[in-house]
Amino acid sequence: MTSTVLHPAALTVRGVRRSFGPTTVLRDIDLDIAPGQIVALVGASGSGKSTLLRLIAGLDSPSAGSVRIDDQPIAGVDPRCAVVFQEPRLLPWRDVAGNVALGLPAGTGRSAGAAAVRSWLEVVGLTGFAKYRPRRISGGMAQRAALARALVRRPGVLLLDEPFAALDALNRLKMQNLLVDVHRDIATTVVLVTHDIDEALLLADRIVLLEPEPGRGSGIGAIFEVPGPRPRERTDSRLTALRTTLLDRLGVPEPGTAPAAAALLVKEPAR
Question: What pTM was estimated for this model as a whole?
């Protein structure tokens, strides 16, 4: 892997509410993410995870409150952020290198841009596929290209909206391992939306649980510290209690278990 280094940013969310007409989706969201942390957003479908990610990216604006990166407010699409979506969204008429180059910051020179694209293709393991069109590569490779396209932007905050959900089980595991390896080398700040609790436990430093309340929208129900440094073993027994608690809070209790992760809970907002 190359020695490419990014500069992680601090992220601050204060009093954020997002309403669409009379319907409130998010309410009273307060969140601090330190530079270089990986934070996973989990919650039931419709709890506002992707809405919060869009607010951080500047793709949407809060109805109230503020989002700041390195203490500077976000106003519109923010060049300090890059987003990887569930689908790779590669342009079929461009080759892999050309798709990655779309993420280059404005004003990047031709020579510097080509070098950056080569560097990030090496990082994600696609060096030999630079001239391939998207139809000639697998879904996992396409998502690697989408990740490289985001990273070539040199973001302070990398936003991942269920980026591995459309992949088969094997490619999903490979992409999770790749993200661990990439983050070890570049240490950018990451916000990950996922429905996969095991994925959150494997990747995140902290897990933010969004919980909806009828008629009021979703708030932060709890924030959990994930035990153990990365890379983590998927079978690490230290994760078992937290996994049980998260599934129970999401309404999917495991048979024959009881939630017992109180020691891992670092914030339980007042209701």
Answer: 0.89
